[in-house]
């Protein structure tokens, strides 16, 4: 992992609506955004960021790139990510919502073969408060500190970052692995990264219904994580079998009519409790649990 | 989104999976034009499983019986769902019934082939013998043979079942599906195989690149559709609280808090997070307008909690959308000339109490803009929830 | 095997490559039913390129002109080939003409995308500016953009051309093609693109898994087909020597030796090497029988050199096939009753002199079996060639 | 490369007509043929060779396998080869004629990624005279010795092996890279293998029209090969644009109507002559040129 402040960053889809909004915000926050790519827009610039038609042209012109943040339309995400991998980029953040899951399967096979870290899709990306923004986190909610915040959500992550900031608890990183059913980086991967990260003292894990990432995380924490972890699960009252807006946030049976329900909030909360990980009842309870874990005074 | 059996079988036929001769029956009299020789099986075309156990599948020997049976099935709701069509299909004498499926497994992040020698309606038996093969790398037919062998098959039957699995996988990939299931795959005494029932779940996100699937789904009964994220999802029949948020996680967390605090949600609406590639403040503004429209149209919603955490659009702009919406709804319900005094009153009454909680840039300006509007402003999520509960209680008391 | 332009364009239309409205014209009077508005282009549908330079493409403004032009084109051979059909197509005002192709490169062992801003009939100009991109790993659309950029395109035109290349590649892979070529791709002043002419070469080995392509080719004029390997290939018009071998390398080497020694091959036939998965001595025996049949039916072949190097079938069995064949051909030409004395004589005369050289197991027994037959036996290839030349010279002298 | 006599060999397609004929012949010649695979025939045996349904079952039962020789029908070759690669086999010989070239492209991408040697398709395979047969070479034409014979043909290779044997020149190996346009192993690869092989003193390269493998070989010999090489090219009188029976033996333009002719005999002979490699006029001349290269007496 190389998400240091001098990481050289590319933005693919810089001429798309969302990319065009966030490119200057990322740069203004201090991200070393060295180039943008948007096919058909080569030769243009946006806020003095040079735009190229191809990733390989960008690399040839501005030099090697550590991370690409991808904002292209859903059906173009696979191609953009494969193009980045072919150009030698080993860290990719997928912001876009709506990427077909089988495209993601194809991408993950390639990413595994090339040892590429994929974050997302359907993720606001990564923020290292005070240093860099690789995505669309609202920077005003974050402040530098020692809480590592990992989640599957977008706006809920911002909400919790704000709660932490208002409680005087800064963050070492804010990252969402993405709201889709099939995502690249996993909770255990990020738990390991943050466990080894000197700037992180406590980890807040924000889960939601659907899938078994939280159960896997709970298991991994019990086995391998030394730092304290606080968990929160959204969706305890969500109706079954209904899409909540995240393709991944759904309680269903893996096979129609066969097998037991997968992905309920109860299953996740139980897994954390079995692993002796404190579970917040509501977002506003998270700062207190963090302080308790850090043995800080509990006044807000 | 699921396909009905007859639609799934059309796809099977197209890719070369053997299916029986069949005809769709839209009304009982269609059976007079049946070209399949009797005996025939009539099957209720519903999205719910287990129709066989409740009388949704009937064998008939002649036209008179068939018309009568069709009338019965058309009038038989299955878990509340009435069929819009039946499938009339040739009868097949299966010696054995297998279960086969291709499904995308989200934990393994790969397609998985599933198979059991115990298919049919006894779900538990199928599960007990279920075998699986993960399609780790690019698919090649040996994955299908691996599953057929794990299922305990051999010789020609192993080859036939592997051939069916291969075609199921092709269909799965070609059409971007979440699930292809054959249950049962009938095996005749001579060892030929036949897909006797099938289920196909298409992936909503991939639908736009498969116009053929989109066309099939458009002809379907719209009410059977899984609600789109753009439509409110109904919750409790006696709930009074509406929840409007941006983002799935935030929507769920807000609803959880409402329930924890003893509130009863009537419906909720997620107007979408901020990871759409084409998002802009304009688009979010439109979604919010439409969301307010939808959530206030439901008479049941007496208190609407609007909880928005936005990075894309400043809070004062959101506040502007809300105040403009309130003005429009109260002052200009349609064209004023069309409105009779009584509807005007009902209409005004219909607008729920709003609790608005906004987080993002320009929050203070937002509060100033909302100061004159008839809304309750909250700073924190907990506060917003508490205010909502108080209002809901007072509304319930009043009514 | 090549497709005709109108067939290639059907494939283009199916995959979404833009083509003009067009109609196949099988005879001049079909033009009376033309639904495309004039002006119209009439194009000779032949396999040979360069038809435009020799009058195979004509612009017409009305039905009278069109019928006349069609008659002319139907009667115009292009490199000896008469068209069986014309294509009537709308006229298109192209501002620029590009060359695009997807081809399998045997040296690189990968598909290659080719493109030039100088398309159309000036081949040299296209070549001078030709750009290529090797599809090293699995294709993804960025390969197409890479080529379009290398061609010197930018902006929307770069995107459009890349889109066409992407669809050409899809077609190439989906249909197992050897070549997909668009020349020219017309670019209108407003920047829209149109495939004005197209060429598609299907791969013979893959044809059996593409029934749609096989069906297209079956409707084609059979004489235009590239000869199948099972049919003799004609060589020099005044040649007298036939060559029958098993295996391509051996056939070529044998023919080279005949020519080096001053012989003139009339035709040759490769009955196939031994790498067919379903080969057996039975199948090789049948192929040999059929090969002898075919090579002796050609009146021109006066001496037939049979050179077989076999691992699959012992030489004595081969010798058995040859002697049995000779007996059948001489003694029982069809049913004896049907044969008039003169045809019998002609028939007997027609059998060429055979030089047989067999290598493999049981060679001595083969020689013994052939001893009584009217064939010349050779031990080595050089010897067989020498004997063939001697016989050919004596035949020529006699005639 | 591991084509020693104790190499453990699998035959895929052992129940197909050609495979069933050659399995016992391969075994009788001394090849360590440990198993056969033919789906649907698992549990049977052929000449005491156990047959399995899957390669992985064969490996699990008889142990690791060095080389698989594939005799399955053309459209099943890709799957069989991918199955062998997935089971950890790194040397594959494809006998089958008629494999679609785009299947071969897919296979070669996988083979390159897994460092698998593919020989063929449309190849009689490999013979190490007196030791092992990996394919369908007629063993009676070969005798052990020091001539390395590499070619693109089947029966023509046998013809030349016989010429060598009759001239008293035994062979260290006989291998055909296959008659198709797209084949796995190349002439340069085999030239390098034989250059390093202690048993090989001289190399005979039998080429034919079509493609540019012979030109590439001539170039490679001039650059990198120390042992003497004798070349022969078939097809000098072959008509242009006509399939000779080998999908690869065709003189054509790579692009319709564009570019110059590729693959003529003259081009290949010239390339060898420029590289000072003796080119035999006819097969029977090869033994003399070999003897000359080895400075052996010239009597036949």
Compact summary:
The complex is a heterotetramer, with 2 copies of chain A (300 residues) and 2 copies of chain B (399 residues). Chain A has 300 residues and is of the alpha/beta class. Chain A contains 9 helices and 14 strands.
Structure in words:
The complex is a heterotetramer, with 2 copies of chain A (300 residues) and 2 copies of chain B (399 residues). Chain A contains 9 helices and 14 strands. With 300 residues, chain A is α/β, with parallel strands linked by helices. Chain A folds into 2 domains: 9-119, Rossmann fold, CATH 3.40.50; 138-294, Rossmann fold. In chain A, strands 3-4-2-1-5-6-7 form a 7-stranded mixed beta sheet, sandwiched between helices. In chain A, strand 13 (229-234), helix 8 (265-274) and strand 14 form a beta-alpha-beta unit. The radius of gyration of chain A is 19 Å and the shape is globular. With 399 residues, chain B is of the alpha+beta class. Chain B is built from 12 helices and 16 strands. Chain B has helices at 5-15, 63-74, 123-128, 141-150, 155-174, 211-218, 248-260, 281-297, 315-331, 341-350, 363-370, 381-398, and strands at 22-25, 40-44, 57-60, 86-90, 96-105, 110-116, 131-134, 177-187, 193-195, 198-202, 233-234, 241-245, 265-270, 303-309, 353-359, 375-378. In chain B, strands 5, 6, 7, 8, 9 and 10 form a 6-stranded antiparallel beta sheet that branches. In chain B, strand 8 (177-187) and strand 9 form a beta hairpin. In chain B, helix 9 (315-331) runs parallel beside helix 11. Chains A and B meet through helix 1, helix 4 and helix 5 of A and strand 5, strand 6, helix 3, strand 8 and helix 7 of B.
């Amino acid at each position: 992992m190389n998400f240091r402040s001098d990481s050289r960053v590319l933005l693919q889809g810089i001429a798309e609506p969302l990319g065009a909004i966030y490119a200057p915000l990322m740069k203004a926050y201090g991200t070393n955004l060295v180039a943008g790519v948007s096919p058909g827009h080569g030769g243009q610039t946006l806020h003095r960021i040079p735009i190229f038609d191809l990733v390989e042209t960008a690399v040839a012109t501005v030099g090697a790139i550590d991370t690409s943040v991808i904002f292209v339309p859903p059906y173009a995400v696979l191609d953009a990510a494969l193009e980045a991998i072919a150009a030698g980029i080993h860290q990719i953040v997928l912001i876009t919502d709506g990427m077909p899951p089988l495209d993601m399967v194809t991408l993950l096979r390639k990413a595994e073969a090339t040892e590429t870290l994929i974050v997302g899709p359907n993720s606001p990306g990564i923020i290292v408060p005070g240093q860099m923004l690789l995505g669309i986190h609202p920077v005003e909610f974050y402040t530098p500190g020692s809480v590592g915040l990992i989640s599957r959500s977008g706006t809920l992550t911002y909400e919790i970052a704000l709660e932490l900031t208002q409680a005087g608890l800064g963050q070492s990183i804010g990252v969402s692995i993405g709201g889709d059913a099939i995502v690249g980086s996993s909770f255990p991967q990020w738990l390991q990264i943050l466990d080894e990260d000197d700037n992180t003292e406590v980890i807040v894990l924000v889960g939601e219904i659907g899938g078994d990432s939280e159960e896997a995380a709970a298991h991994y924490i019990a086995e391998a994580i030394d730092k304290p972890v606080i968990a929160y699960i959204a969706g305890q009252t969500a109706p079954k079998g209904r899409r909540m807006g995240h393709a991944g946030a759904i309680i269903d049976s893996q096979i129609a009519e066969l097998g037991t329900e997968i992905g309920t909030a109860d299953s996740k909360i139980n897994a954390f409790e079995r692993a002796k990980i404190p579970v917040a009842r509501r977002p506003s309870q998270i700062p207190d649990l963090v302080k308790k874990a850090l043995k800080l005074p509990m006044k807000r | 989104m699921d396909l009905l059996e007859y639609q799934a079988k059309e796809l099977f036929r197209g890719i070369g999976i053997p299916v029986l001769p069949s005809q769709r029956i839209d009304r009982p009299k269609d059976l007079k034009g049946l070209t399949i020789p009797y005996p025939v099986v009539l099957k209720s075309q519903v999205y719910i499983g287990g129709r066989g156990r409740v009388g949704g599948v009937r064998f008939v020997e002649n036209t008179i019986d068939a018309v009568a049976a069709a009338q019965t099935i058309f009038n038989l709701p299955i878990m509340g769902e009435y069929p819009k069509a039946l499938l009339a299909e040739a009868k097949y004498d299966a010696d054995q019934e297998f279960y086969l499926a291709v499904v995308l497994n989200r934990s393994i992040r790969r397609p998985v082939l599933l198979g059991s020698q115990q298919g049919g309606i006894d779900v538990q038996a199928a599960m007990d013998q279920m075998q699986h093969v993960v399609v780790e790398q690019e698919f090649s037919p040996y994955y299908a043979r691996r599953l057929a062998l794990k299922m305990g098959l051999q010789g020609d039957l192993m080859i036939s079942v592997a051939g069916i699995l291969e075609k199921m996988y092709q269909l799965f990939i070609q059409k971007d599906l979440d699930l292809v299931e054959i249950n049962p795959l009938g095996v005749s005494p001579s060892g030929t195989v036949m897909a006797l029932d099938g289920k196909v779940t298409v992936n909503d996100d991939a639908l736009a690149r498969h116009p053929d699937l989109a066309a099939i789904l458009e002809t379907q009964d719209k009410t059977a559709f899984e609600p789109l994220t753009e439509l409110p999802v109904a919750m409790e029949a006696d709930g009074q609280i509406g929840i409007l948020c941006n983002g799935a996680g935030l929507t769920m967390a807000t609803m959880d808090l409402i329930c924890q605090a003893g509130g009863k949600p009537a419906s909720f609406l997620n107007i979408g997070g901020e990871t759409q590639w084409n998002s802009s403040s304009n688009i979010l503004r439109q979604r919010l307008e439409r969301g307010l429209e939808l959530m206030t149209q439901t008479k049941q919603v007496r208190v609407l909690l609007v909880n928005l955490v936005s990075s894309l659009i400043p809070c004062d702009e959101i506040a502007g959308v809300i105040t403009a919406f309130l003005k429009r709804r109260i002052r200009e319900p349609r064209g004023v000339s069309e409105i009779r005094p009584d509807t005007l009153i009902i209409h005004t009454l219909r607008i729920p109490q709003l609790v608005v909680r906004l987080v993002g840039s320009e929050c203070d300006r937002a509060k100033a803009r909302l100061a004159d509007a008839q809304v309750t402003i909250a700073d924190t999520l907990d506060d917003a929830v508490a205010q909502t509960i108080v209002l809901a209680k007072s509304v319930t008391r009043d009514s």
